[in-house]
Write a structure and sequence with these properties.
The protein is 41% helix and 21% strand. It has 190 residues and is α/β, with parallel strands linked by helices. The chain has a single domain, classed as Lambda Exonuclease, Chain A (Alpha-Beta Complex). Helix 1 runs antiparallel to helix 4 and helix 4 packs across helix 5. Bound molecules: iron/sulfur cluster. The site of iron/sulfur cluster (SF4) has 12 residues, from helix 2 and helix 6. The site of iron/sulfur cluster has 12 residues, from helix 2 and helix 6.
């Protein structure tokens, strides 16, 4: 079976219809300007990180990998940063805003990287980092066993949707719909 892209997990959690549109409809969404800014930010951040030692994260002794491709038997994706230590792996994602809140969808995406990295390096992942700004302001999130159970349930739901192809209901709020690139394709949203 084709591997699921970890980046689609965030969208699925935001609204399963987005995942449906990407997989079953020939629609090219028009992204808002801030999405381009996010892509440019990653390029700039990559350059800045070439000369940094990650001491601020307390991970100087760890081997660091940028834009690391990962996969396991059901997922694949590119993790912004991966740190491999003697006894653990740590995943990191950049955020171009100073807001270090981790949405449920973003958390599930990071957990997907944690799951793949853990399997690849045969080491546990018990913490994940969200990093914002050029000053490496960051926040560490603990990983609990229940988190992986939730991720596995989401992966199962995504696979079911791919198998049955049924247009899903959505519990997205009107606020979420108003910022969605597929707003014009959901006739039951106003
Ligand atoms: S407009 Fe709302 S219901 Fe439709 S895909 Fe977007 S978030 Fe989901």
């Amino acid at each position: 079976m084709e591997l699921l892209k970890a980046s689609l997990i965030r969208q699925f959690v935001f609204c399963p219809r987005i995942f449906y549109f990407y997989n079953f409809c020939d629609i090219t969404p028009k992204y808002p300007k801030h999405v381009d800014f996010g892509n440019e930010f990653h390029v700039i951040q990559d350059e800045l990180f070439k000369s940094r030692t990650f001491a601020k994260f307390g991970l100087s002794e760890y081997k660091a990998y940028k834009n690391q491709y990962l996969e396991d038997d059901e997922l694949c994706g590119v993790c912004d940063m991966l740190f491999v230590g003697e006894n653990e792996v740590v995943v990191l994602e950049f955020k171009h805003s100073d807001n270090l809140n981790l949405s449920n969808g973003a958390k599930m995406q990071l957990l997907a990287y944690a799951k793949m990295a853990s399997k690849t390096y045969a080491k546990p992942c018990v913490r994940m980092i969200l990093c914002s700004s050029n000053h490496l302001k960051h926040k560490v999130f603990k990983v609990f066993p229940d988190d992986f159970a939730r991720l596995n349930k989401i992966i199962k739901d995504m696979k079911n949707l791919l198998d049955n192809g049924v247009f899903p209901n959505s519990s997205a709020s009107l606020n979420a719909c108003n910022q969605c690139e597929f707003f014009n394709y959901c006739d039951d949203r106003e």
